Amino acid sequence: MTKVEMIETIIGYLKTLSDRAESGRKDAQNEANQHVGAMQSRYDTFKEEAQYLASAQGLRKSQLDEQLRALKEVRAMLVSNSKPSAIAKIGSIVTLEDEDGVISRYFLAPGGGGLKLDSPAGECIVGTPSSPLGRAVMNKSVGDEVKYKTGKGVMVMELIDIL
Q1: Percentage of residues in the chain with pLDDT exceeding 70?
Q2: What is the CA radius of gyration of the chain?
Q3: In angstroms, what CA-CA distances link 57 with 18, 44, 123, 146?
Q4: Taking the CB of the first residue and of the last residue of the chain, which one, N or C, has fewer CB atoms within 10 A?
Q5: pTM (2 decimals)?
Q6: Beta-ladder partners of 96
Q7: pLDDT band per the 50, 70, 90 thresholds, residue 34
């Protein structure tokens, strides 16, 4: 799978999530609209809860739509310039090696974090610049040390390849 195909896969995945968020927003808003008038008791909070849910689903859809916009820009960039960079950036596939010699690959993208994809270098996981690993690896070069915090402590890896 090429980088452009990887971006297309992420776009398809995020479009599905965005559609689900919009459907959930509409369902929650319809639920809120069905509860008319004053509350039956102080425990009757269905309308407020549905409104909160509709608002949260709307926010999630907005976030996903922003990620989709950014992914489309990356796709256009990859189509016009397919040369690999010497520095890790959005659109790069980075290969990291931990202290035990375990190799892992990440595709740096503005959305779809955690999604597993096949890449020209093998299976990789989508990493976003807002994730701890994404922040740590951005603008690094081959041979650089990458440190980031996890729930288990500080991870130290070496950047061994950039595609």
Answers
A1: 96
A2: 21
A3: 9, 22, 32, 35
A4: N
A5: 0.88
A6: 104, 159
A7: confident
Q: At what angle do helices 46-80 and 3-34 cross, to 10 degrees?
A: 160
**Would you state the structure tokens that stand for residue 94, as one six-digit string?**
């980075």
Output the CA torsion sign for 59, 61, 62, 64: positive
The alpha carbon of 79 is separated from its chain's Cα centroid by a whole number of angstroms, namely 21
| Residue 140, C-beta contacts closer than 8 angstroms, at least 6 positions apart | 87, 88, 94, 146, 159
Q: Output the pLDDT for position 85.
A: 85
Instruction: Please state, in angstroms and rounded to a whole number, the distance separating the CA atoms of residues 142 and 121.
Output: 15
Go through the chain and tell me how many residues it has. 163
Phi-psi bin for 90: left (phi > 0), alpha (psi -120 to 50), beta?
Answer: beta
Place of tokens 């402590």: 153
Query: Which one is predicted more confidently, 40 or 63?
Result: 63
Residue 15 has, within 13 A of its CA and on its CB side, a CA count of 9
